[in-house]
Amino acid sequence: MTTLVAAMTDPSYAGMVIVIAGYPRDMDVMLNRNAGLKSRFKRFIDFPDWEAEDGVAFLRAKALKEEMTLEPGAEVMLLKTFEELKKLDGFGNGRDAVGMWDELKQCRAQRVFTVAEMVRTITAVDAAIAGESILAARRPPDGPILSQSSILHPSDGLCRPREQHAEVRPSLCELSEDQESETHLQAEQMVGNEEALEADEQVVEVEAARDEEPVGNGNIANEERDIGVSDEDWEELQRAKEDHAAHVDGLRRAREQAKLEEERRRVEAIQAKIRQICPCPAGYSWYKCGTGWRCGGGSHFVSDAQLNNQFTC
């Protein structure tokens, strides 16, 4: 800072415009380090942070430019992610949006590695997993600060596992628990193919469980402490195991949330089609009853046959 002040008072730099940029709090700390520095800057320009909707709009434009389809359910998950990012320190606006896009493409690449898709699509599952990863990396870690000796021991030349994110925060799925409960009720009332739908859900759960099974994980509860391991190293290892378990659980919940979001959209589509056939004057929701659907007030009924004759559900 002293060098900068000296240069600003040097006649050889007369007429030069000096621009410095950074986060408001960091800039204030830097300028206050030298009493004569802040007074020499005559104009300050504040750029407002992006809103969560701005981040989603940016990703929507990126998807369009790279000829990808962004599912509506994916946009919902991305909006929640940006809302959570804005609550954390150091929100990077466009930089964070670019990082989110890179994470989305990586999640999609892992998903389509074995199963190709006709249209390049960013799904709600991709968005949920990418959001969990971004938020987990941004949240401050918990636990004591480790000494350098606990990270690397010259005697054995081996690096200890790096401490990751020990604090288990609410995931994107937990932010909408009320919505999940409502979606569960609606999914149970969907017209036709209930048994087939249940079978599909079981297949998804089995595949998700297979994806989440860590390679060589074994039974963590039965892993006993080796002889000679210090208390500090053992505690660090236990935190790493807890971090891993929390990460796996977050992925599972993200998949479940994406699946429920898809079912909610399907139910809403059916409800809209029923209202075209028989609008309920009171605006009640429709519920699956026997061979058809009945409005919440009970006085209006649409049969499955009527629904199938007029629409393909």
Automatic annotation (TrEMBL):
It holds the Pfam family AAA_lid_6. The keyword Acetylation does not apply. Residues 72-126 form the CbbX AAA lid domain. GO terms for molecular function: ATP binding; ATP hydrolysis activity. The keyword Mitochondrion does not apply. Transmembrane segments: none annotated. InterPro entries: AAA_lid_6, CbxX/CfxQ, CbxX/CfxQ_RuBisCO_ESX. It comes from the Eukaryota. Keywords: ATP-binding, Nucleotide-binding. Gene3D superfamilies: 1.10.8.60. This is CbbX AAA lid domain-containing protein. It comes from Hyaloperonospora brassicae (Brassica downy mildew).
